[in-house]
Design brief:
The protein is of the alpha/beta class. It has helices at about 20-30, 50-55, 70-80, 90-95, 105-110, 125, 130-140, 165-180, 210-225, 250-260, 305-310, 330-340, 380-400; strands at about 5-10, 35-40, 80-85, 115-120, 145, 150, 160, 185-190, 195-200, 205, 225-230, 245, 265-270, 275-280, 300, 315-325, 345-350, 360, 365, 370-375, 375-380. The chain folds into two domains: about 5-180, Flavin prenyltransferase-like (Rossmann fold); about 185-285 and about 295-400, 3-Layer(aba) Sandwich (Rossmann fold), CATH 3.40.50.10300. About 35% of the residues lie in helices and about 20% in strands. The two termini are about 35 Å apart.
Length: about 400
């Protein structure tokens, strides 16, 4: 499946270095050509001969090899993907700060192709403010990350810091290597999660959206080459790497952020679940319980999708969502027309595997031409199906 793909595997000096042997084996078994770069400390854990035997190629560790070939330049020209596993706090810090004092750090700095790191370190090092800042820097530059996982660490404690398993790293790398790049040059704006409408300093109104679908779409668009802007309500999800994230609280906040960002977007995918109503007044102090009931007066919030449909530029693609509990197709089609959306993604949230908070979804995609129904699948796969439909809209617009 990876025949013709070239992978550089960087191995640093952590106890998890032995797991990199299995990772190299997986790449070779899948048909990839592999070059291994080891730091001097990595050699203390695994012999270079082991990697030479598994890859069938010499191991790189010096800036110059035989015939004075410049190591980091030859590897830069070779690699379709660089994977660093394990990625210690040391190499993460070097990458973030632009330090190139050995072959691996020099090679990574020279790379113009994707880089994937699998962090592995003591939990205290992982939670250190310097490591956290370095990771944020790398993510903002588009470096892909897998792990770390939780479990028993080399120091004897059970906590976060274990390197992801080789098969997980391999699957992530495979997805990067064979991903479509049909959205290169396009800007995709995605909204995700719920909004919160403040009632008093303690309470707010919200819904059950977790943001998983919107985040999956944002990551899929990034992997297909797009520049991605993600506007997200309050969610409990890690910030995706290589994506510009704007965090908002209320529907009005989301409306303001989205209307501004949409001016430069080729695609707008409104996957968020903004509140339709907000309290007419917000109390400055906590509302005290004074009886057995309380009456709230609610007023409408801005209709983000409808506004986007009103101001949609020629050639811009608008995708809306319809989470329904009855008459799904009819309600979704009516919403598509009212919002002037090119596509609407409809799902019955009462179906098993299609509700809020799940890792799967069951959707239908409706357009002017008709409807396509999909069986239950992961939200990552649903995201790619949605982007396939968006790409077809672009193709149709080009032909007109």
């Amino acid at each position: 499946m990876l025949t013709g793909k070239n992978v550089v595997v960087g191995v640093t000096g952590g106890i998890a270095a032995y797991k990199a042997c299995e990772l190299v084996r997986l790449f070779v078994k899948a048909g990839a050509s592999v070059r291994v770069v080891m730091t001097e400390h990595a050699k203390e854990f695994v012999s270079p001969l082991t990697f030479e035997t598994l890859s069938g190629k010499q191991v790189y560790s010096d800036n110059f090899n035989k015939a004075w070939e410049i190591g980091h330049i030859s590897l830069q020209n070779f690699a379709d993907l660089t994977v660093i596993a394990p990625a210690t706090a040391n190499i993460i810090g070097k990458m973030a700060c632009g330090i190139a004092d050995d072959l691996l750090s020099t090679t990574v700095m020279a790379m113009t192709t994707p880089v994937l790191i699998a962090p592995a370190m003591n939990s205290g090092m992982w939670r250190n403010k310097a490591t956290e800042a370095n990771m944020e820097t790398l993510k903002s530059r588009g470096v892909f990350v897998v792990g770390p996982a939780s479990g028993e660490l080399a120091c004897g404690i059970t906590d976060v810091g274990r390197m992801a398993e080789p098969i997980e790293i391999f699957e992530k790398a495979k997805k990067i290597l064979i991903a479509k790049r049909d959205f290169e040059g396009k800007t995709v704006l995605v909204t995700a999660g719920p909004t919160r409408e403040k009632l008093d300093p303690v309470r707010f109104l919200t819904n059950r959206s977790t943001g998983k679908m919107g985040y999956a779409i944002a990551e899929a668009a990034r992997d297909r080459g797009a520049k991605v802007e993600l506007v997200t309500g309050p969610v409990n999800l890690p910030e995706p790497s290589g994506i510009c994230v704007t965090r908002v609280e209320s529907t009005q906040d989301m409306f303001s952020a989205v209307t501004e960002l949409a001016k430069c977007a080729d695609v707008v995918i409104q996957a968020a679940a903004p509140a339709d109503f907000t309290p007419e007044t917000v109390k400055d102090q906590k509302i005290k319980k004074t009886g057995d009931s309380m009456t709230l007066t609610l007023v409408s919030t801005p209709d983000i999708a409808k506004h986007l449909g009103t101001v949609k530029r020629e050639g811009q693609v608008l995708v809306a969502f319809a989470a329904e509990t009855e008459n799904v197709t009819e309600n979704a089609q009516g919403k598509r027309i009212r919002k002037n959306a090119d596509l609407i993604v409809a799902n019955d949230v009462t179906k098993p595997g299609a509700g809020f908070g799940t890792d799967t979804n069951v959707v239908s995609v409706l357009s002017e031409e008709g409807m396509t129904e999909y069986p239950r699948m992961s939200k990552k796969d649903v995201a790619d199906k949605i982007l396939d439909h968006v790409e077809r809209v672009f193709t149709c617009n080009t032909r007109k």
